Amino acid sequence: MKFVYFLFLIMLSIPVSAQIIRRIDGSEITADSLKQKITFLMKAANVSGVAVSVFNNNKPVFSRTFGYANVPKKIALKSNSVMYGASFSKTVFAYIVMQFVDEKKLDLDKPLVQYLSRPLPEYKIEGFRRGYHDLANDDRYKKITARMCLTHTTGFPNWRWFEADEKLKIKFEPGSRYSYSGEGLQLLQFVLEQITGKDYEIIARERVFIPLGMQNTSQIWQKRFEKNICYGHNDKGEIYDLEEWENSGAAGTMSTTLDDFTKFYTELINAKGLSAESFKAMTSLQVRIRSQAQFGPLATVDGDFNDSIQLGYGFGVGVFTTPYGRAFFKEGHDEGWGHYSICYPDKKTAIVIMTNNDNGESIFKELLAYAIGDVYTPWQWENYLPYDRKRQ
After folding, report:
1. Fold assignment, 10-390
2. Predicted confidence (pLDDT) per residue in 174-191, tens digit
3. What is the pTM of this model?
């Protein structure tokens, strides 16, 4: 017993900088070298703030913040700084949806209209979701399922307000191809709210935020967040206006912190809260992606661009294959924000990156390769143009 206690004391005395991080190929780096790499990348790419958690054996072994939460006021970014989570919220939502599937309260392949008490176009919703009256003359909405929403194959645009007339429409046959759509996730959220009789904020709080102790995470803006707020910045370090969401949106209204999201991601990659079957389905290939890019004009240009990694989508996360097994990933993006998470389940290795600057995504390629040895992320499909290529 004395010997075990002596070893424990030795472990406590080891400097954090000497901690070892294992990459997917088995090679190792120190926490100190990763800190130096992040600091270098931030300076080279002019990134305001970076928050990173690295996971080995599905546990966080490195969790650090760098830079500023507010550049003009020189307020440091901390692990409890409240950041806009952007589409990281979609991962949380997919996790919750799969709980409903496990509980047999939701069938992935049952048309969503069958869960409603009246035709979908008759529902008028307050707030940014705007309702579904635009679909009244297109019966294809009756085919849409939870599976289509989670795999981005509903046929909806990303957001209706990106359309010239700002109306919601079905642009291709539901289930026929991948096309990223926040609208699809919002429809599934609406159906879950009808099934439960609860707002999604309450659902997320009951199933994830409270059980995991995520005290600084919410789908709607909380006044208490102001004391630890982190702002998004443009490439000059100027802050963007803060978005204070009044209505919960599963596709992208979540505010969170590095501490809180690390708690959730630990739960997810350990498949806690889900059946083994649901976790495997969520994080494995459901539909192949053949587009040259995720967004923009190239999103409709198909080819063999990512066939080497079998790029596709699971439920709420992107997926691909590598020599080290399958990987699943999720991004988050908005003005002033760029986030990325990826997990290699077979290697039990993962990383969460959160940045509060328009330049943040330009360091992803190099940071992923250094931190965990991920050289397979489809950064070109994501349009994550590296900072050193931007200068050319």
Report:
1. Beta-lactamase (3.40.710)
2. 999 999 999 999 999 999
3. 0.94
